[in-house]
Recover the amino acids of this structure.
């Protein structure tokens, strides 16, 4: 099975980079993405976080977007925790007619996201998303892909409530990777209630359980489709998919 996974990974790397990379060590910014008969580049800093995002989102397809694109025809896509825009950029290729709302508060990633959004259907919003509108503290001392909101943060950033996301529109596809802020967002059921398909990287950082997470999601009328813990994170981080009943 490991051999099959390696072969699939190699094949995906070749095809999804338009044959620009034949091993992951070659992947350097700007990153090549090929999808839906189109090819583009994603600009990013030369750090481990952006390379990890490329490997997970594009090569591994951790959110199953390449698979979903065969059946989905979304009009509204939301990317909470967009970082440099790897997921948003992929969606702009797969779903060229969709409006894509990308939310990212970290200035280290935001400048790249704004550059990657040019000449696309991606709308950039320099905000964190929580359960209320205001100002929160963001920890920017680590890699931009791991910045968490909390009392120990070093940078004040603006945030909006989940009810304001996508201007209150119905959402066909919502992706979330916000380093634990999902627990605040889910306190209000409104966002998921107007979302049809949902995928996220979840975080069990404060002794939360996957059962608690399931209850929060299901009370919004969603059915859990699949949960995949990441083994190297000892099940505190993983990917979850759900759909509106």
């Amino acid at each position: 099975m490991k051999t099959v996974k390696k072969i699939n990974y190699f094949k995906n790397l070749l095809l999804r980079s338009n044959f620009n990379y034949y091993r992951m060590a070659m992947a350097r910014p700007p990153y090549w993405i090929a999808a839906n008969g189109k090819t583009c580049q994603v600009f990013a800093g030369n750090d481990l976080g952006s390379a990890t995002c490329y490997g997970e989102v594009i090569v591994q397809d951790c959110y199953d977007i390449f698979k979903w694109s065969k059946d989905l025809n979304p009009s509204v896509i939301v990317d909470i925790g967009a970082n440099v825009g790897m997921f948003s950029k992929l969606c702009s290729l797969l779903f060229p007619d969709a409006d894509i709302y990308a939310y990212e508060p970290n200035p280290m990633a935001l400048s790249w996201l704004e550059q990657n959004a040019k000449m696309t259907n991606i709308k950039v919003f320099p905000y964190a998303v929580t359960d209320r509108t205001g100002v929160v503290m963001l920890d920017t001392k680590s890699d931009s892909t791991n910045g968490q909101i909390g009392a120990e943060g070093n940078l004040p950033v603006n945030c909006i409530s989940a009810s304001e996301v996508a201007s209150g529109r119905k959402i066909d596809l919502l992706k979330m990777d916000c380093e634990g802020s999902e627990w605040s967002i889910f306190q209000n059921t409104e966002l998921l209630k107007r979302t049809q398909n949902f995928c996220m990287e979840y975080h069990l950082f404060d002794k939360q359980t996957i059962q608690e997470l399931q209850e929060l999601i299901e009370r919004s009328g969603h059915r859990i489709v699949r949960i995949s813990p990441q083994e190297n994170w000892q099940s505190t981080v993983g990917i979850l998919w759900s759909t509106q009943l």
Observations:
- Residues 2-16 form the longest helix (15 residues).
- Residues 72-244 form a domain with the Rossmann fold fold (CATH 3.40.50.150).
